[in-house]
Each structure stands twice: as C-alpha cells, then as structure tokens.
C-alpha cells in the first residue's frame, strides 16, 4: 500500500506524544498497524512493549488480523485489546479476578428490576427505564462524578441515589464488578499502588489508541498514568466523529490533548479515499458550523461525482415510495443490495419503511434490532382495552388498564384469573363515586367493541382520557410527553388501513414474525440485503448508496438536543451519516408526519448554504444581515432571509440558520 505524506509522517513518528486527526475514510487503521510494524522493524522496539487499544472487541480483532498480515510469518506478540480487556487484565494480576467476578448483563437488569419493585416505583416502560438507569450508573462511574452533585434525567435524585447505592452494595457483597468497575478499580489501583503502576509502565512503553474521540474521563486518567514517564502516546481519532456523549465520551479530551501534552506533534490525515468530492464538500460545509472542533479541510481522492440529492416529501408514504423506487433503480443498475444503506436518527425510525420493503420483497437487514412498536407498553395498554372490549376478561389485561387513567382500583381488587365486573361493582356498592368510574369503564368498553382500530385508538386517547394519563406519567419520568404521544400517533396511523380488529391483529402478528426472523438474518454474513441502521451504528461502515431519512427538526437534530453541546453532537452524527456514502447520497425529509407539520432540519439548510461565505459577502456589500436580505453563494443559488420571529409561511421550504429562516432558489 502506498502512503501519502501525512500518513507517512504519522507512521514514522517514534517517541513522544502525537495527535493524529484522521478524517473519514483517511486510512487510520492502516496507519496504526503500519506504525506498529515500523516501531518493531525500523526502531527495534520489543513488540511486548507495544499496546494498541480500541473500543470494541471486533475492531481490536480486525486490527490484530491486519497487523499479523503485515508481519507475514514473523511472530510479533503486540498486545491488542479494548480498554476493558486491558484494564481487567491489570486487575486480574492484582486481585486474582476471573470472569466469574464479572456480573452478567442479565443479572444487572434483574437486580435493578427487583430494586424498582422494592422501592415501589410505578413504571410502565420497565425495560426502557431499567436500561436508562444502568446507562446513568455507567455515566456517573465513567465521569467520576459525585452523587451529591448529580442530577438524574430519569427520576428524582433521591430515587436514583437509592438505586445507585443499593446496586453498588449488591456488587460489593457478592464480590462482583461490572464493566465500569473495571475502569474505576483500575484507576484506583494504579493511583494507590505506584509499585504496580511502575510494572505496567515498564511493559507498555508505546501506547497507540484508535477512536480516541470516544474516550471518557476515567479511561484517559488511566492512560495518562500508564504512558508516564516517556509519554509515548499515539492517539488517533476525529473530533468531528465523536457521537457517544450519552455513553460518557468526552470529545473535549481530544480537543485539550495538546494542553496536557504541549510538546505533542500533530498530523492531519485529510485525504478521504472513500467518498466522492461533492459528498466530501457538502459534509465539510455542514460540520464547520460546529464551534468546538479542530479546524480542518478534508480533501477527496475520488472524482467529483454527483451532488447529494436533497428532497422533501409530503409525508412518510411518499418518502418510502421514493426510497423503494430508488433502491430498485440502483439495483437494476448493478449496485448490490448490500452496497445500499438507509440511515436514521433513532432505532424506531424505519418502522413504516420496513412494511414497505416487506411489501416489495426487497431483502433487508437491520444493524440494530428494530423495537417492535406493538410490544411497547403503550401499545399493550391499547390492545388490552380492545381485547377486554371483545370479551377477554383476563386479570392481566385489567391490571394494565385499571388505572390508566386513574380510577383508584387497587391491584388486589382483581383477585381471580378472570375478572367479573359485577363482583367488583358489588364491592363498591356503598361508594357511589367508585361505582360511577366502573360504570364509565363498562360504557367505554361497549363503545370500543363496535369501532374500527383507528377510531378505537382515538376514543381511548380522548374520551377515556389516556392522553391525560400520559401527561402525568411524562412529568414523573422527566421526559417530554411528545415522545409518548408520537408512539400513539404512529400506532393510530398504522391502524388506519384496517377495517376490523381481526385484520389489524393479523397484521401485528405478521409484522412481529418478520422482526423475529430479522434476528436470524442479521447473523448471515454474505446475505445480499439493504442495510437499515441508526446513524450511531453506521460509524466505521461505508456504502455505495446512502439514504438519510426524516431529516426534520425534532428528529435530527433530536428534540432532546437542547444545549449547544447537544446540537453539536447531533451535527456530528449527521456528518458521520453523510460520510458513509461513497458515490450516491440521498437526504430526505417530510413536511408532515402522523398528521403533524414538520420543519426541515437545520442541517439541510447548512448543506445548501455556506453561512460563513454569505456573512462575509453581506459585510463586503454592506448589506444588513436581516429580513429580506438576498445574497448569492458560489453554487449560484439565491438565498432569501426571513426574520424567524415573523413565522411567515410564504415559502415552500424553510430552513433554520441561526436566528433566520431561509429559502434557497435557483438563480
């Protein structure tokens, strides 16, 4: 393999710290493996003294394989591993730990669930809440935070503190550690035992780290200790591709690396060997709107190619129809299905598209398991209402809907496998206000029995008062009620085409079966199929054709992205998605989703408009940068600015740039 000047500069670096900024498709893995070979063959470094770290087991395995391919028949026992595997090795030597001391994920989930029950926390979305709490525990440990100054995003501080403390006590009592403890305990060990630290410093004299932008605080603190005193620390990453803040990743660690190591050399791998020139140019225009980043210009090694195709559609139906048509077109032109990807912001994004792909028999695989909306607790509540209305009086169904909305019906009222409402009314014969509630429930169930699925969901939402219940629940869970209402909207929209409950139930079973089959499809290595993936999971992958769908405000950037740091992360995610494409990139948005009007993502506006260029032009021409300003950018497009406060809907397409709405028209 022939290396460019920047790559050679990184490969041939020997001593001292180095920061390698590796843009998308710039050959960073090749640089890391080649530098490892260079240290051994050209610098005479003992391979036993070299440590190469990356974030996933698969990435570490791939890098090790590529390195051994370079070395051919020469045995070079370089240590390749993840942060967790390396740090656990250190703990094994110190504390005689084995795999039996690592708590399983299932055991963690089970214990948190038991704590929820013990603390009498009423949770409908138990699975999601449990996972979120465990993620928060990881965040606290990884950032080395004090519970006294931590504000939980899932529940009250008091409840979170009780769960966290009980969880930690459980681990200590049973001599167990979780994956975050591997980091924390290793840090504490090396901090308190300079003799042990010295042994590992002597072993790992050259440390190379891949994907450094994803490092968290405790990982970095350990690495800083291990690399002393020589500081032969070779870090490779791209701050523009840091998209794991929710896991504790701190891109600012990379941004401040040169403050910690003032003598560090910096090299930029700025040639993109993956994407066409136009894709690289548009992606660069987007990402430079981030303020907290290393300024860099990425250059494409490939031909110009076609511009990204940016389209907006009336609704999801039109968007998905166009995706199917485009996939069929590319496949007819000779592009294999496995060179086509559809990327989306959250794992629930492609639900409607999955139905469409099934209808057209287009093979697909999901990089992430698509949550079955019919297994969502809200769907189960709706289905429980309908099944009871149709004559199924199973106790478990009544337990799901008894107090949604609040009816003050205690669980022990339902003390037999089959519920008899007449018996329950008899228990409240002296409480007229309770009788009224049960009679209203009977009336509602009778009404539901005669309805279509779509009408039934509307009745449950409004007439029964289920939306009011969701409002109360959202307040308790510290989440936006819109997130819950979106699930209702999607369920209701999906039921519209079915005239009877039987047809709807049959669809639910068929859809659920397809998702179950997808679990097996995902394991097939050579299965030619379109990839459906979240933006997060697409990182590190590449495709000839990429579709980014639902590029709308509230979806990407996500409605949860409120701070500047959140928005910059969302922009990085969009940048990662764009740079997965080698030749063809489609960016789609919709004007309406589940009968709600949507705005096109600000990121689309930033792709079409070079804000820096336009501001500079406005300054030169002495024009006011405000309502009605008309400027032309280098792409020959006229940009009309409207004051955002006016909220004028004169335009067909509105994009948000700073404090303005803009319209792009051809000159």
Layout of strands and helices, then pairs:
Layout: H1 5-11, E1 18-22, H2 28-41, E2 50-54, H3 57-71, E3 79-82, H4 83-95, H5 105-118, H6 126-142, H7 157-173, H8 179-192, H9 194-203, E4 206-209, H10 217-227, E5 233-237, H11 251-255, H12 257-260, E6 265-269, E7 271-272, H13 277-287, E8 299-300, E9 309-313, H14 316-332, E10 340-344, H15 351-359, E11 364-366, H16 377-389, H17 395-401, H18 421-427, H19 432-449, H20 453-462, H21 466-477, H22 481-495, H23 501-521, E12 530-534, H24 535-538, E13 543-548, H25 564-578, E14 581-590, E15 592-593, E16 596-597, H26 602-608, H27 611-620, E17 630-632, E18 637-643, E19 655-657, E20 660-666
Helix pairs in contact: 1-2, 2-3, 4-8, 5-6, 8-9, 8-10, 13-25, 13-26, 14-15, 16-17, 16-19, 19-20, 20-22
Task: Explain what this protein looks like in three dimensions.
The chain has 667 residues and is an alpha/beta fold. The chain is built from 27 helices and 20 strands. The chain has a six-stranded parallel sheet with strand order 3-2-4-5-1-6, sandwiched between helices. It has a six-stranded parallel sheet with strand order 9-14-13-10-12-11. The longest helix has 21 residues, at 501-521. The chain starts with a helix and ends with a strand. Mean pLDDT is 87; it is low at 622-631, 638-654 and 656-661.
């Amino acid at each position: 393999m022939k290396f460019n000047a920047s790559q050679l500069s990184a490969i041939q670096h020997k001593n001292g710290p180095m920061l390698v900024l590796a843009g998308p498709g710039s050959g960073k893995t090749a640089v890391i493996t080649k530098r490892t070979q260079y240290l051994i063959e050209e610098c005479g470094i003992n391979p036993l003294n070299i440590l190469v770290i990356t974030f996933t087991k698969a990435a570490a395995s791939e890098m090790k394989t590529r390195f051994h391919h370079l070395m051919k028949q020469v045995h070079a026992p370089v240590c390749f591993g993840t942060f967790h595997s390396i740090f656990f090795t250190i703990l094994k030597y110190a504390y005689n730990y084995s795999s039996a001391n690592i708590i399983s994920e299932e055991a963690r989930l089970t214990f948190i669930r038991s704590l929820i029950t013990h603390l009498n926390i009423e949770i409908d979305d138990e699975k999601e809440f449990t996972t979120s709490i465990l993620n928060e525990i990881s965040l606290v440990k990884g950032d080395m935070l004090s519970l006294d100054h931590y504000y939980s995003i899932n529940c009250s501080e008091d409840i979170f503190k009780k769960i966290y403390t009980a969880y930690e006590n459980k681990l200590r009592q049973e001599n167990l550690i979780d994956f975050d403890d591997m980091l924390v305990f290793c840090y504490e060990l090396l901090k308190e035992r300079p003799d042990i630290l010295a042994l590992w410093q002597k072993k790992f004299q050259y440390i190379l780290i891949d994907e450094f932008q994803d490092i968290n605080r405790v990982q970095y603190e350990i690495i800083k200790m291990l690399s002393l005193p020589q500081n032969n620390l070779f870090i490779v990453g791209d701050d523009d591709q840091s998209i794991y803040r929710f896991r504790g990743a701190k891109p600012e660690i990379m941004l401040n690396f040169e403050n910690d190591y003032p003598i560090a050399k910096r090299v930029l791998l700025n040639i993109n060997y993956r994407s066409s020139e136009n894709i690289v140019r548009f992606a660069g225009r987007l990402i430079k709107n981030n303020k907290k980043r290393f300024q860099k210009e990425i250059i494409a090694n490939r031909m110009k190619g076609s511009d990204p195709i940016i389209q907006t559609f009336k609704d999801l139906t039109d968007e998905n129809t166009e995706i199917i048509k485009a996939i069929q077109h590319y496949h007819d032109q000779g592009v294999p299905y496995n060179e086509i990807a559809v990327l989306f912001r959250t794992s629930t994004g492609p639900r409607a598209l999955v139905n469409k792909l099934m209808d057209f028999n287009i093979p697909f695989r999901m990089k992430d398991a698509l949550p079955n909306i019919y297994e969502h607790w809200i769907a189960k509540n709706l289905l429980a209402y309908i099944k009871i209305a149709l004559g199924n009086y199973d106790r478990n169904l009544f337990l799901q809907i008894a107090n949604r909305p609040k009816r003050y019906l205690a669980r022990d009222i339902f003390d037999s496998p089959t519920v008899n409402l007449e018996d329950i009314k008899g228990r409240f014969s002296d409480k007229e206000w309770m009788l009224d509630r049960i009679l209203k429930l009977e009336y509602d169930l009778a009404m539901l029995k005669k309805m279509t699925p779509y009408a039934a969901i509307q009745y449950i939402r409004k007439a029964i008062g289920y939306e009011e219940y969701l409002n109360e629940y959202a307040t308790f869970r510290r989440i936006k009620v819109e997130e819950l209402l979106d699930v209702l909207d999607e369920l209701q929209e999906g039921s519209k085409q079915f005239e009877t409950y039987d047809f709807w139930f049959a669809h639910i079973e068929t859809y659920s079966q397809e998702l179950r089959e997808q679990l097996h499809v995902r394991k097939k290595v050579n299965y030619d199929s379109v990839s459906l993936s979240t933006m997060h999971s697409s990182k590190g992958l590449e495709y000839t054709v990429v579709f980014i769908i639902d590029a709308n405000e509230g979806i990407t950037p996500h409605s949860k992205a409120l701070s500047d740091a959140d928005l910059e992360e969302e922009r990085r995610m969009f940048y990662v998605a764009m740079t997965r494409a080698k030749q063809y990139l489609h960016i789609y948005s919709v004007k309406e989703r589940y009968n709600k009007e949507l705005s096109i993502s600000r990121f689309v506006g930033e792709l079409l408009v070079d804000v820096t260029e336009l501001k500079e032009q406005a300054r030169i021409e002495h024009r006011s940068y405000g309502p009605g300003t008309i400027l032309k950018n280098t792409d020959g497009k006229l940009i009309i600015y409207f004051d955002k406060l006016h909220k004028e809907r004169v335009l067909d397409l509105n994009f948000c740039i700073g404090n303005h709405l803009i319209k792009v028209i051809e000159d």
